[in-house]
Amino acid sequence: MARPLAYLDVRQRVVALLADGGGAAGFGWVDPYAGQADDLLRVLERCPAEPFLLNACGVLLHELTRRDAAATLFRAALALDPELPAAAANLAAASAGGGPALDRPGLDALARRARTVAARARPAEGLTVSLCLVVRDEEELLPGCLASAADAVDELVVVDSGSTDGTVAIAESFGARVLHVPWSGSFSEARNAGLEQATGDWILMLDADERLAPGAAPALRTLLGRTWREAFLLPLTSPTGPQTALRHPALRLWRNRPGYRFAGRVHEALAGLPTGLPERFELAPVGIEHLGYLPEHAAARGKTARNLALLELEPPGPARSFDLGSEYLRAGELERAAEHLDDAWLGICGDPGWPAVGFAPLLAARAARTRRELGRLEAARGLLGVALERLPDYTDLWFELAACATAAGDRAEAERLLERCLELGDAPLRYPATIGAGSRLARARLDEVRGG
Questions:
Q1: DSSP string, 225-294
Q2: Which of 207, 283, 316, 410 is the least buried, fewest Cβ under 10 Å from its Cβ?
Q3: Mean pLDDT score of the chain, rounded to an integer?
Q4: Which of 416, 404, 347 is nearest to 376 (CA)?
Q5: Are 431 and 361 in contact (CB under 8 A)?
């Protein structure tokens, strides 16, 4: 990809220019547009695989009446990123033709450079990925994790925080480089120790109780060439019982850069990513399976008690309250879960931008569920009403609202809401979701309501 600062600089300038329309009357916009196109092409000539910049340069050339060259740039952008906003419409407009061409020196040269750049815009080849794990006494689950990723990665970096079983020997049998790092009470410190030693172009993060879904390795290797991304979110599915499972988008694959490091003792988050540049991220259908919520594994490891102790050391705020509430909910302590989840909800819901908070959709679902299970039906319904105004395609919220109607004895309303779930289908991949809330589970619940 283009150097991050060079990319950000040219991106900001072209967005500002297009928003301003050139800032001059008559034909005074031509020179600023041509100058910006020249700047974009200079960046693209070094790193042509940049869909956002290809599209932006195409817009400039289209306005400068070099429509054939613009169409070539739009096609190149779409070949790299078929979902790039506005690129398909831009291509259609450029392909439709237009009026006479501007007769200005240098414009034909820009068009020739654009065609050359477009011809070179393709995914990178030969990039590598390092799998990084933090483990301790994981001899039962670690073999499955490492075997699932063996064909997908080029390097295994395992941070062991004090295993007393066969974990280290298992990791070494897969060719892993094992780092012995004493446990400090911070998952971020342990994870960052592994990142410091990883040499791949990309980092893949898994835990021992996770594994790549069958057949996912080739698809993951394909992602490595998309250097116009900084990170990928991968759908992580967590079975919670024989017939139930949760799915959520997890940030598990990112560019190996020194500025990207973890923060937080537990439920740690990767800091430093350019979250203000949405085109640098992609939700990719490369599945991960997580076994840690199955009762036999969760109970055996005592994760809830450990996580609660670590979370108490974190600074207060909505994220900490959400994590504490989620842990108490998992432990079945509803009153304490409700206390923390309500605090988290109050901490974010007053901000108009709350839906963009990463944990906000799941917080709304969990806070409403906890209120319902405590018998606070109107409070649950009120929260869901607010959330659904902003997240109308989040099926889990409709499913929870149907549960509230059932608990209130309103069968007709419950039936209507469950039918709405079936119309929507399971929630889009960008949401943390209960698998079946828009399909199998909704149909079963609807049959119960109709038969009751």
A1: T-TT-SEEEEEEEEE-SSS-EEEEEEEEEEE--TT-EEESSSS-EEES--TT-GGGEEE----EEE-TTS
A2: 316
A3: 93
A4: 404
A5: yes
